[in-house]
């Protein structure tokens, strides 16, 4: 089932895939990485002027990585603003997604955290470097196939 934003995107010839609605009734859309920057600018102009959150997750071991954006239309006098959830999937072998820092400045630390934990490279981000882990850290700790360095499982601990 398509929501109102999906219908509007189709009407204007913008490529996306509707993923339905979440448990709160918020429309969820999938955008291809190569289309994400231009659609982000269009959504900002359309009125989605607030990036409420950005996060990322590992879909499955050895599978895709996802970058998730929760956008809101903040307008004066509106008690229930429109919201949308955008998911951008990237291949694990070369996870590159255009940064939306230049559209929503609040993406700065959030994209850096996703880079730090999952290794998603946000193209054109002005300061893309580790934010939680030391620069010398090897690997991406939140990937499902990550093996912690120097990890020794304690056997028979009582």
Automatic annotation (TrEMBL):
Keywords: Chloroplast, Membrane, NAD, NADP, Plastid, Plastoquinone, Quinone, Thylakoid, Translocase, Transport. It is a peripheral membrane protein. It is an enzyme of class 7 (translocase). GO terms for biological process: photosynthesis, light reaction. GO terms for molecular function: NADH dehydrogenase (ubiquinone) activity; oxidoreductase activity, acting on NAD(P)H, quinone or similar compound as acceptor; quinone binding. Core subunit of the mitochondrial membrane respiratory chain NADH dehydrogenase (Complex I) that is believed to belong to the minimal assembly required for catalysis. Complex I functions in the transfer of electrons from NADH to the respiratory chain. The immediate electron acceptor for the enzyme is believed to be ubiquinone. It is found in: Mitochondrion inner membrane; Plastid, Chloroplast thylakoid membrane. NDH is composed of at least 16 different subunits, 5 of which are encoded in the nucleus. Its EC number is 7.1.1.-. This is NAD(P)H-quinone oxidoreductase subunit J, chloroplastic.
